[in-house]
Amino acid sequence: MKKSLQIGGAYVGIIVGAGFASGQEIVLYFTSYGYKGIYGAFLATFGFALVGMCIAQISSRYRTTSHKDLIYQISGQSMGFVMDYLLSLFLFGVAVIMFAGAGATLQQMFGLPVWLGSICMIILTIATVMMNVKSIINIIAIATPYLLIIVSIIAVYSLATMDLTFVEQSVIAQQAQVSSKSWWMTALLYMSFNIGVCFSLLTVMCGAIRNEKVAGMGGIIGGILLGALILLINLSLLAKMNVIVGLDIPMLALANEIHPFAGLLMSFSLLGMIYNTAVGMFYSFMVRFFKPSKPSFKVASVIFGILGFFASLAGFTTLVAKLYAVMGYVGFMLVIFIIFAWLKRNQRIA
């Protein structure tokens, strides 16, 4: 059970980066749909738990050491090639979003220039990637309970100090909606995108687990925890929609409403999650093309870090809204491949 909890905690930690913990993603994909966003949260929870279990069990079965090992197994040679490189591109894209998220967080909390916060996170990420990152999974797992506690406190406060009714807040939320898609399609796209994001590290982590049931339970636990966080953040934001409309980091604004010290704790939590995801994504991207033991790895890390900085200047909110939407569709294809591979595997066992 301890191993399953570690997998579940790491599963959450991989996904919970700048967009998720800040509330920006939740506003775009759930809160802006008003009451229907709550239904979307439950649908996403089911998807995270189901697909997380499938990835964990298949990875354990095939003893995978990288996403490449599993991609070709579940999607064939031709499609595997396309999916492999698209996933690698997504890893870099998410790392860029984390860099932009760090800049937005430090600006909103401390008034620092956005570019300065982004550079600091990039330098820290590159430095970590060049060192030993084998313990990153444990670090990510440890951070998950901390975030869950802070988000729960903010949720209770937001619900207890609502200025308007949920009906009135729902109207404000829907006016801020930027997507024309239905709530259920948006929820599924959000889930599938995040599966694409965590797929690489999840396959490596669960490939080292010899017991498929233990690995699968970790995927289920992680999915349920993700759903709980989505629901808590969604309710917090919906209760205070009149306060957080247009903010890059809405959860930070709510924490500051409680007390400046709560805002400071939330800032550190956000930066910690951003750091975890940035390192995980950037490292997964780099090792796909360069061997860590070779000098070219360090040179390439610096070059791609510089490219990531310029890409991050597009802005945190813009990157989340545009890049995540495109990535969701490719992630959806990956989810279909994963579920079919899991069903075929179980049929052979039966």
Describe this entry's structure for a reader:
With 350 residues, the protein is an all-alpha fold. The chain has one domain: Amino acid/polyamine transporter I, CATH 1.20.1740. It contains 16 helices and no strands. Helix 5 crosses helix 6, helix 6 runs antiparallel to helix 14 (260-289) and helix 8 (136-160) packs across helix 13. The radius of gyration is 19 Å and the shape is globular. Keywords: Membrane, Transmembrane, Transmembrane helix. This is Transporter.
Average pLDDT, to the nearest integer? 82
Order of helices and strands: HHHHHHHHHHHHHHHH
CATH class, anyone? Mainly Alpha
What sort of overall outline do the alpha carbons produce when their principal axes are compared? globular
How far apart the termini lie comes to 25 Å
Largest sheet: none
Q: Provide a count of the helices.
A: 16
Structural class: mainly alpha
Tally of individual domains: 1
The overall strand count is 0
| Low-pLDDT segments, ≥5 res | none
Organism: Lysinibacillus pakistanensis
Keywords: Membrane, Transmembrane, Transmembrane helix
Protein name: Transporter
InterPro entries: YkvI-like
